Amino acid sequence: MNKNSNKFALDKSSLELFLAAQSTKYKKIAYFSSIEYDFDNIKKKLLAINPQLNVLEFPSFDCFFFSNLSPTNKNKSDRLNCLHNLVFSDLSDKIIISSLEAIVTNTINIETVKKFQLVIGNNNSASYDKILNFLVEGGYERVDFVHNKGEFAIRGEIMDIFSPIHKHPIRILFDFEKIEKLNLFSTEDQLSKSTIDNYYLSLASEFQFNSENIASFRSSFRQLKLKDKDDYYKSISEKIVLPGSEQFFPILNKRFYSFLEYLNGYKIVLDSNFEKDFNQ
């Protein structure tokens, strides 16, 4: 470690012990690896060392853009959950695990994340229409039965939603416009579980197919003269999101932001190969 610098150089050996120790000292740590380690495994080891740690993953996208593929649901929800927590949570002893590639790709505007938070509770003003409008504007996908984060379903006066920032989905029972009951439920058997008082909604993902973004997509698509993707151009122009549409993330926004902009007040930790790989 350079005493005159805010940056550390670190290799894989004893990584978790080092990060846990540094989080105790600095309270907020962001670790960037030059390769994609098994972040889930690192997180489990960190929590085994100190269960009080708040560990968040910000992986790089797990697909190639312009390849007719979309990131997996877990990948999208891990990234969005991290962004949301960085904006709204003031918890200390926080460790962010990420990679060089995740920095290079960039992400959405902080203000966009700030704009999309809705608290659903028995005693607040979140009406049926207000929640439904939030889901549509936040990019949630309507399905018959909710199984994945970022999905919602409606059956009569029952609305099921799976927010990316929660481990379980919520089932809302309405009495006309008013919320009558909130329950968590299982995605496996669809049965209701425990009753809760509040549930937080965020953006469904970084992929937002709103009118402004679609206009940006259409303009860039024509400039790039992309081949064999006319079906996607037509469908997205009509606000129809086909599977694989998220491949166009690099041209879906007028401006992107570095993930580093979310890390104000964080101590940056780099592994020993980071600077070499970055320069390459």
Notes on the protein architecture:
The protein has 280 residues and is of the alpha/beta class. Helix content is 32%, strand content 22%. The protein contains nine helices and 13 strands. The chain has helices spanning 15-26, 39-49, 73-88, 100-105, 110-115, 128-137, 211-224, 230-237, 274-279; strands at 7-10, 28-33, 54-58, 94-99, 118-121, 141-142, 151-155, 158-161, 170-175, 178-185, 192-195, 198-201, 267-271. The strands form three sheets. Strands 6-7-8-9-10-11 form a six-stranded mixed β-sheet, with helices on one face. The chain has a five-stranded parallel β-sheet with strand order 1-13-2-4-3. A hairpin with a 2-residue loop joins strand 7 (151-155) and strand 8. Helix 1 crosses helix 2 (39-49). It is globular, with a radius of gyration of 20 Å. The chain starts with 6 loop residues before the first strand and ends with a helix. Mean pLDDT is 89; it is low at 1-5.
Main attributes of the structure:
alpha/beta; six-stranded mixed beta sheet; 22% strand; globular; disordered N terminus
Quick summary:
The chain has helices at residues 15-26, 39-49, 73-88, 100-105, 110-115, 128-137, 211-224, 230-237, 274-279, and strands at 7-10, 28-33, 54-58, 94-99, 118-121, 141-142, 151-155, 158-161, 170-175, 178-185, 192-195, 198-201, 267-271.
